[in-house]
Design a protein that fits this description.
- This protein is mainly α.
- The protein has three domains: 110 residues, no CATH class; 99 residues, no CATH class; 47 residues.
- The protein is built from 13 helices and no strands.
- Pfam families: AI-2E_transport (PF01594).
Length: 346
Amino acid sequence: MNEHRFFLTAIFLAVLFSIIKLYEPFLMIITIASLLAMATYTINLQLYKLTKSKHLSALLSTAFLSILLFGPIVYTITSIGGIVNNFDFTMIERVQTYLRTLDYHLPAPLAFMQSTLDDFISNLNIAQISTTALSYLGSIGKNSAGFLKDMLLIVVFFFFALLNGKDLIDYFKSVMPIDAKEVNFVFSEVTNVMSVVFYSILFSAIFQGALFSLVGMYFGYDGLLLGIFYGFASLIPIVGGALMWIPLCAIEVAHGNTTTAIIIATYSIVVISIIADTFIKPLIIKYINDKMVKTPTAVNELLIFFAIFAGLTTFGFWGMILGPAITTLFLSLLKLYKLLKEKHYM
């Protein structure tokens, strides 16, 4: 009996290793799709109650995710080509000339930094910076095919994760050497946090992007494109939307519209960064946690912030999903270990 079990275990490990090697290029994609399926579990559940069809609810949820993923990115890629081709390089010289005419005299407490600031301004080469930025923009179109392929595969795996996810979870519960309640505890913790992270990132990016698109449209820009850019920029910790409104202000200054630049900067800092991000965003997260998550969870915003930042640094774009998931899984296992230890001593 022991030899039979040993042989079966050896065969299983060998096949498992082969499966991992076979699907290694897709492991990240499968992981992202599974985490997104967990994050949107409540939406799929509501659609299932409405349609009474597992296939139709999974299809509708997949269509919803596809619009969120492909819509903004396809519009952005098609718009970038026009920006690069029609870019006015004389504007760069006007910005650089204007910046060098300003008085950068620092106050007395910061006088020790005056020489450093003067050297920085004198050596500032906006033309080179802009050329580099435009080359990056141009490379987006060239490299977008691989990114779109990954997103397409994520959508496909997302559909099957919703369709067969419950059966897979039930199977793992039956074969794992821990109690089903413990598996449910960890799964519930990760699912709840992923839902809060996903919805808060989504709604916050859309909300802040919409606010920035309003000021962009008011001054004659492509508001939808600016809103999409700002929404993605807002996901980057620390710098965030400054990646959008600072260059836009520089463009206005280059055209001699200093007042417009001041209005855009003030609006971006006060309305978006302070009011929307500092005061309204926590209310959005609270509403999501109370109304849209099956079991409300105590989300430490600072921890989630560092998890997203670490995820972006380590894994790139999809790190905003992987970072919180890995952190939550680790904390859930620690909490489960503590509960089991307390139960053992009781």
